[in-house]
Design brief:
single chain, 345 residues, alpha/beta, TIM Barrel, eight-stranded parallel beta sheet, 16 helices, 8 strands, 13% strand, globular
Amino acid sequence: MNAPFGVRQFVEQLPKAELHVHLEGSMRPELLLELARKRGVSLPADDVAGLRRWFRFRDFAHFLEIYLACSRCLREPEDFQALMTDFAAHQAAQNIVYSEVHFTISTHVGNGVNGDEIAQALGEALTTAEAESGVLIRLIPDIVRNLAPAAADVTLEWALAHRDKGVVALGLAGLEGVSVAPFGEHFALARAAGLRTTAHAGEQCGPESIHEVLEVCRPDRIGHGISAVEDPDLLRALAAERIPLEVCPTSNVRLGYAESVARHPFERLRRAGVAVSVNSDDPPLFETSLIDEYQVLAAAFGYSRSQLGELARSAFEHSFLDDGLREEYLERFDAQLKTLLETTV
């Protein structure tokens, strides 16, 4: 007999992948407070409740202030290991079996932390997470477009040197509106070395931002990309060339790039045939989770269980897993989704 399930229960049991989530932005207030006290970093609040209030952004500049404060609290290899371990536990609790995690290594190297020691600490945490909870995590070090190319050099060198510690791709983040022209060679070198690529674009700026990164960086995926709905030709190109968008609905709303989830362009992108995945971006900073993201989309657009399953499958399909491993994950996903759909109503 089929069991009556709500959307949230269905999504909780659905095996999921997440392709756009930032490690530093995944720091819970409890861990931030612990690390700040340990490393002598001053924060605007000295308790968890106060930090939660601070996490309610006024604008993108306020968000960056918080993000950089979290980064300043990561001073020793054990801090990075603690953050990754905490992140992995949170993913496992949501049945997120595979994650690709953006990580701004140049910030930490600039703060004086040894990059090789960071890689070792993160690699150990990834290995432990997979062994203990079956959660597979891979890393995407980000070039920050509004920093000097020297920081991009650090990012690329770290990415190429630590593929054995879980690095699968080179990313691009930072303030849109700053030209990405200086970074075309970095992305070309990453591709030549066998890394995949992704770039934030079309979140803070219009479709011209997406056009620029496609021309200069030639990424496999676009982070956010929601302003593509303003350019029908770009929409058609993204759909035809199967360039996926990593969409983060609550993040877009909280930062003012969408009026509400109900008015978010997610469904217009999907109907245009663009491949989209659902992501949480910086979950504790936006008071969300990947489960929450699926739930608010279902409420806003009336998605059925089958449609939610299609969205979850898209994340696995467009992941940077090796082809053989991706097929294994997809086979397991299809079997589990079939069982879920047959046994729940």
